[in-house]
Write a structure and sequence with these properties.
Layout (H helix, E strand, L loop, with lengths): L1 E6 L2 E4 L4 E9 L4 E8 L6 E7 L5 E3 L7 E5 L5 E6 L8 E9 L12 E2 L3 E6 L1
Parallel strand pairs: 2-11
Antiparallel strand pairs: 1-3, 3-8, 4-5, 4-9, 5-6, 7-8, 9-10, 9-11
Length: about 120
């Protein structure tokens, strides 16, 4: 079992930055970690993913060059640094985990989810 707690959401003007954090507890073995988001009336979409073992990362095209996923040295907290935010980045952001050893991770088959943190970008 993995428990995930997100923090760091809030309101920001377009062009600004936010950093989301996801603290993981429980089974801290190797896993994929990812950030997803869901805007009102839209389907949930993957934003960024990484392997806690290899450090390899994977991004949605819509955030490449603007968002960065990373982890702390203890591999228990994953971050999402969001720069050059746009109005269309407004959504509820969720942290997710998939246990197992993976050299690379994508947006598939996540079985642990956090409660979400709201990000609102205004013009």
């Amino acid at each position: 079992q993995v428990q995930l707690v997100e923090s760091g959401g809030g309101s920001v003007q377009a062009g600004g930055s936010l950093r989301l954090s996801c603290a993981a507890s429980g089974d801290t073995s190797s896993r994929c970690m990812a950030w997803f988001r869901q805007a009102p009336g839209k389907e949930r979409e993957g934003v960024a993913a990484m392997s806690t073992e290899s450090g390899s990362t994977y991004y949605a095209d819509s955030v490449k060059g603007r968002f960065t996923i990373s982890q702390d040295n203890a591999k228990s907290t994953v971050y999402l640094q969001m720069n050059s935010l746009k109005r269309e980045d407004t959504a509820m952001y969720y942290c997710a985990a998939r246990s197992g050893w993976y050299w690379s991770c994508n947006f598939s088959q996540y079985n642990y989810w956090g409660q979400g943190t709201q990000v609102t970008v205004s013009s």
